[in-house]
């Protein structure tokens, strides 16, 4: 069981994380380097040291971001891919075993609201397609979670134009090119690469998104058949679409799920959902069935509770407060403990 920690600047300090009784490892990243550049060994080592000083390990990175030129297949991509490979080597040198990344053009995860109230007085992230689409990124200045605010408006317009010719097939081809360079390095270094699904799992603002459903998942896994070419199975991302059967998708990715982000979400209408507390009864996903499917498939990777609600008056980074994620970790650990025991026939 792991817990995401945004480094020394995170309002959720590592000593608090260490007090959640089920956490083994922190999930973190180097945040002081622009996307596409090589991470300093010093920065990697300081994350490892911080974890170990609290009795934790640092074995999972989320994320080593992929430069847009790689996703676009631009001529400069080879330099960024070489840097990416160097980051894989450096991380492996300091004990990292799993690297989460995504291949979403321009935007990472997207929400329309960062603090929509829930019936119990807490609040959480929510998505309403109508609201999102009304925020035309070419006209409005955006401020959404998952959005890289360092782009200027002109850069954003340029980037969106550059994607005009990129459809799903081209994006898949660019991903394959990237994997064919990175996966051999991951094999050499014993590191698992784990792509994160697109969140939400459908195209937005005319940009293609390709890690979205069962069919696309199959296609992704076939791009490079190495077991090192795997998935971060994020239930909240895939599960935002009621059409996705998560148990079936876990079977499709059997043996290739290296990291699981487990959280619940409540479907309100087509392309309209709100994140909820982790338990099955709080949302639309069957968390026990998900954990069973993972365990039945021999899942042996890292797990983390995902976005929590803001509860007990906590203020902080949307989705990444301490309290509700800690509750989620305890709940998920309980499910795994019971399902593993059941499987062993105890
Ligand atoms: C959101 C996260 C994502 C994830 C990246 C992985 O909370 O799950 O931002 O870290 O998509 O590259």
Give a verbal description of the structure.
There is one protein chain. The chain is α/β, with parallel strands linked by helices and 346 residues long. It has a single domain (2-343), classed as TIM Barrel (Alpha-Beta Barrel). It is built from twelve helices and twelve strands. The strands form two sheets. Strands 1-2-3-4-7-8-9-12 form an eight-stranded parallel beta sheet. Strands 5-6-11-10 form a four-stranded antiparallel beta sheet. The longest helix has 22 residues, at 168-189. The radius of gyration is 19 Å and the shape is globular. The model has no long low-confidence stretch (mean pLDDT 95). It binds D-mannose. Residues 62-63, 100-102, 108-109, 146, 196, 261, 307, 319 line the site of D-mannose.
Task: Write a concise synopsis of the structure shown.
This protein has 346 residues and is of the alpha/beta class. The chain has helices at 14-18, 41-53, 68-72, 77-93, 129-134, 153-162, 168-189, 214-223, 235-238, 246-252, 287-296, 323-343, and strands at residues 2-4, 25-28, 57-62, 98-102, 113-117, 123-128, 192-196, 229-234, 257-262, 265-269, 272-275, 302-305.
């Amino acid at each position: 069981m792991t817990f995401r920690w945004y480094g020394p600047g995170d309002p959720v300090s590592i000593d608090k994380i260490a007090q959640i009784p089920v956490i083994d490892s922190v999930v973190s990243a180097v945040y002081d380097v622009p996307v596409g550049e090589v991470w300093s060994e010093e920065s990697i080592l300081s994350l490892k040291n911080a974890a170990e000083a609290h009795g934790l390990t640092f074995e999972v990175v989320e994320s080593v971001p992929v430069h847009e030129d790689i996703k676009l297949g631009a001529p400069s991509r080879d330099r960024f891919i070489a840097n990416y490979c160097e980051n894989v080597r450096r991380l492996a040198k300091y004990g990292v075993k799993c690297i989460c990344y995504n291949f979403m053009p321009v935007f990472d995860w997207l929400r329309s609201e960062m603090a929509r109230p829930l019936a119990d007085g807490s609040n959480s992230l929510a998505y309403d397609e109508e609201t999102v689409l009304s925020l035309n990124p070419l006209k409005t200045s955006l401020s959404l979670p998952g959005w890289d605010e360092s782009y200027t408006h002109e850069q954003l317009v340029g980037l969106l134009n550059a994607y005009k010719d990129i459809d799903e097939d081209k994006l898949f081809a660019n991903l394959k090119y990237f994997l064919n360079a990175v996966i051999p390095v991951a094999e050499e270094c014993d590191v698992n690469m784990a792509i994160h699904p697109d969140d939400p799992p459908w195209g937005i603002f005319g940009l293609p998104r390709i890690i979205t459903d069962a069919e696309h998942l199959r296609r992704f896994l076939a791009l490079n058949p190495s077991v090192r070419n795997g998935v971060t199975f994020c239930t909240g991302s895939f599960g935002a679409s009621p059409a996705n059967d998560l148990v079936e998708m876990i079977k499709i990715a059997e043996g290739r799920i290296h990291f699981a982000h487990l959280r619940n979400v409540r479907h309100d209408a087509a392309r309209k959902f709100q994140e909820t507390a982790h338990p099955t009864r709080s949302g639309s996903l069957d968390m026990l069935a998900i954990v069973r499917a993972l365990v039945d498939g021999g899942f042996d990777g890292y797990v983390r509770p995902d976005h929590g609600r803001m509860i007990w008056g906590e203020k902080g980074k949307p989705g990444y407060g301490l309290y509700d994620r800690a509750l989620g970790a305890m709940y998920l650990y309980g499910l795994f403990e019971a399902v593993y025991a059941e499987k062993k026939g105890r």
